[in-house]
């Protein structure tokens, strides 16, 4: 298994370009199942999760052709099946996003029940509540969930007990081909939800209100495809990847400029970086963050958008672990998203978990150590800590990082980091 070796102490300086958002590309790829028309997607990030979703679409009978780097032609004219194999759902929870489109397009959908993962139980009750409200019969047995609707889904009013991102997305995709209007109340407002709505409308759907708590979908009989034949769609830039690079600049006392971002999507991250003492400049599609010699402590509470994103909690906690003062980090979205804390403590961080909160007493310096990633954001946090730790840090289980970060090592090295990826010497048998 590869590992990442990073030697701390270098101040970063330079510019990096954000790639398209993993959490926008995944639902948009799933949405291509809704139409037999050809879809063209641009700038898809070449990360593991996108490859997994493409593999799943291929197994469902979708034809995917790469026209040039990052530009794909996707055609779901004749679907081969309506079942998402457990193996793929187990690998990537976001595979569950094919349920809504399959149900709407074929009247059937079967997927392995996604289990929990490193950050929490991750239930799907709200997804199923929405499908049932639209008229689907749901059956749970043998570790699989199957949904079916005799005839067509019917528009309905759905209240989400929690503004779940993928539940909002799954229900929105199912509703787009339903008969009548669907209202999703207490919907997630994340930019990735808005991007999916824009893509559905690009295909001929009628989705309104995305980005607010109430989304209205007027069902259509079919999605005819882009109004301008052949028009391509580019997902929004990845705000979490951009935030991760900004923290890399600040934690090292250097600076990083991230281009090709939507500054509004980074508002909470920019606010917290400023509270931590960073100088942050926001321009049209570019954000530059420069770190102080040592960051200041501040408190962070993760919340649904537009609150501070849970996916930035681990990277930001790495920054606070070397801040001057004591910070409190409260994780309100997932119930077990502090697995990185034990690894940071092995590097000398002083963090105590008390329920949903982590009390972080900033230390002057961390020391490099072998550490293991437990999920992609925790992995990124350990790399960030390694950038500032004394000596060498070896991050193991880097496959987690490959799921959602495109060339993290190469791009940090280009910013001046002493970092490299090491593949173990082949075991001579
Ligand atoms: C999406 O996951 C993202 N994944 C996650 O990113 C992100 O952390 C999360 O939203 C929160 O922003 C994708 O978009 C592919 P949720 P999702 O449903 O939709 C509860 C990353 O690192 N809930 O908004 O699965 C759940 O228990 C990943 O890129 C229910 O109770 O998150 C959790 O406490 C990690 N019932 C809360 O909602 C449900 O049916 C938030 O989950 C669904 C969710």
How would the blueprint of this fold be written?
Blueprint: E1 3-7, E2 13-17, H1 22-31, E3 38-41, H2 48-59, E4 63-68, E5 71-75, E6 83-84, H3 86-91, H4 99-106, E7 108-112, H5 125-133, E8 137-141, E9 144-148, E10 157-159, H6 165-175, E11 181-185, H7 191-202, E12 207-208, E13 214-218, E14 232-233, H8 239-251, E15 255-259, H9 267-275, E16 279-282, E17 286-290, E18 300-302, H10 313-320, E19 326-331, H11 339-346, E20 350-354, E21 357-361, E22 370-372, H12 376-388, E23 392-396, H13 399-404, H14 408-414, E24 418-422
Parallel strand pairs: 2-15, 3-14, 6-7, 10-11, 18-19, 22-23
Antiparallel strand pairs: 1-23, 1-24, 3-5, 4-5, 7-9, 8-9, 11-13, 12-13, 15-17, 16-17, 19-21, 20-21
Helix pairs in contact: 1-2, 1-7, 4-6, 5-6, 6-7, 8-10, 8-12, 10-12, 11-12
Which tags fit this structure?
4-stranded mixed beta sheet; 24 strands; UDP-n-acetylglucosamine1-carboxyvinyl-transferase, Chain; 31% helix; 429 residues; binds ligand EPZ; 2 domains; alpha/beta
What would your notes on this structure say?
- The chain has helices at residues 22-31, 48-59, 86-91, 99-106, 125-133, 165-175, 191-202, 239-251, 267-275, 313-320, 339-346, 376-388, 399-404, 408-414, and strands spanning 3-7, 13-17, 38-41, 63-68, 71-75, 83-84, 108-112, 137-141, 144-148, 157-159, 181-185, 207-208, 214-218, 232-233, 255-259, 279-282, 286-290, 300-302, 326-331, 350-354, 357-361, 370-372, 392-396, 418-422.
- It is an alpha/beta fold and 429 residues long.
- The protein folds into 2 domains: 3-19 and 237-422, Enolpyruvate transferase domain (UDP-n-acetylglucosamine1-carboxyvinyl-transferase, Chain); 22-229, Alpha-beta prism (UDP-n-acetylglucosamine1-carboxyvinyl-transferase, Chain).
- A 4-stranded mixed beta sheet has the order 22-23-1-24, covered by helices on one side. A 4-stranded mixed beta sheet has the order 2-15-17-16, with helices on one face.
- The chain starts with a strand and ends in a 7-residue tail after the last strand.
- The mean pLDDT is 95.
- The structure holds ligand EPZ.
- Ligand EPZ is lined by residues 22-23, 26, 94, 120-127, 162, 164-167, 192, 310-311, 333-334, 376-377, 404.
């Amino acid at each position: 298994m590869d590992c990442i070796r990073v030697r701390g102490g270098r101040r970063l300086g330079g510019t990096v370009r954000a790639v398209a958002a993993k959490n926008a590309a995944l639902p948009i790829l799933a949405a291509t199942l809704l139409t037999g028309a050809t879809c063209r997607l641009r700038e898809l990030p070449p990360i593991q999760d996108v490859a997994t979703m493409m593999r799943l679409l291929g197994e469902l009978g979708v034809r995917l052709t790469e026209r040039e780097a990052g530009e794909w032609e996707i055609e779901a004219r004749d679907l081969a099946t309506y079942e998402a194999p457990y193996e793929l759902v187990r690998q990537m929870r976001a595979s569950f996003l094919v349920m809504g489109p399959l149900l709407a397009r074929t009247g059937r959908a079967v997927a392995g029940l996604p289990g929990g993962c490193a950050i929490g139980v991750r239930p799907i009750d709200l997804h199923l509540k929405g499908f049932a409200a639209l008229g689907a019969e749901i059956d749970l047995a043998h570790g699989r969930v199957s949904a079916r609707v005799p005839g067509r889904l019917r528009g309905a009013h759905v209240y989400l007990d929690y503004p779940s991102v993928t539940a909002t997305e799954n229900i929105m995709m199912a509703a787009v081909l339903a008969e009548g209007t669907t209202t999703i109340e207490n919907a997630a407002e994340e930019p990735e939800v808005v991007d999916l709505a824009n893509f559905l409308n690009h295909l001929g759907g009628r989705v309104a209100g995305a980005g607010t708590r109430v989304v209205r979908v007027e069902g259509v009989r079919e999605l005819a495809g882009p109004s301008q034949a052949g028009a391509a769609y580019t997902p929004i830039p990845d705000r979490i990847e951009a935030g991760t690079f900004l923290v890399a600049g600040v934690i090292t006392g250097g600076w990083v400029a991230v281009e090709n971002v939507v500054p509004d999507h980074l508002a909470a991250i920019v606010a917290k970086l400023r509270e931590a003492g960073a100088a942050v400049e926001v321009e049209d599609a570019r954000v530059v963050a420069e770190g102080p010699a040592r960051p200041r402590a501040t408190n962070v509470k993760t919340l649904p958008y537009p609150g501070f994103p849970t996916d930035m909690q681990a990277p930001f906690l790495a920054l606070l672990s070397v801040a001057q003062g004591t910070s409190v980090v409260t994780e309100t979205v997932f119930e077990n998203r502090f697995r990185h804390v034990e690894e940071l403590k092995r590097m000398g961080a002083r963090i105590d978990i008390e329920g949903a909160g982590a009390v972080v007493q900033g230390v002057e310096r961390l020391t490099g150590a072998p550490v293991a990633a437990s999920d992609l954001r925790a992995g990124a946090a350990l790399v960030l800590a390694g950038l500032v730790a004394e000596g060498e840090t070896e991050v193991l289980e880097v496959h987690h990082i490959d799921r959602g970060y495109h060339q993290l090592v190469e791009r940090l090295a280009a910013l001046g980091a002493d970092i490299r990826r090491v593949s173990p010497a082949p075991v001579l048998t």
